[in-house]
Amino acid sequence: MQCLDSAPYLLIIELIRKAWIAEDEGQTCKGVSPSIISDNMSHELINLTQYGPPPDMRKRIYLECVADIKNKNASATGSIIVLWALLRMYTMNFKRIV
Predict the structure, then answer these.
(1) Helix axes 76-97, 34-48, angle to 10 degrees
(2) Which of 12, 15, 53, 71 measures 20 to 30 Å from 46, CA to CA?
(3) Which ranges of the chain would DSSP assign to H, the alpha helix?
């Protein structure tokens, strides 16, 4: 199976992080809560994980998310969601193997 390049993953991750920044600031987008956007994007990220990202990029994403959380950035909640989405697919694959 061929891996997708980094663009789709990075776009979705950025949308998730920005949605949570907007949520914390009480913003909406045409009446839609940013948490709804984040929820939809996290499901898209889960769906994309069947095509990647490649291990080196996955590691980079993990490290960026952990640093974001450690530094208590405004986007930390989004990074938690990203980690959850990526690790969820990993555990689903692990359950199939066991």
Answers:
(1) 30
(2) 71
(3) 7-24, 34-48, 55-70, 76-97
Write down the pTM of the prediction: 0.81
Domain boundaries, the chain: 7-97
- Mean pLDDT value of segment 22-44: 83
The CA-based diameter of the chain, rounded to the nearest angstrom, is 45
Q: Is the dihedral of CA 95, 86, 47, 5 positive or negative?
A: negative
Report phi then psi at 32, rounded to 5.
Answer: -100, 130
To which residue do tokens 């997708």 refer? 4
CB neighbourhood size of 87 (10 A): 12
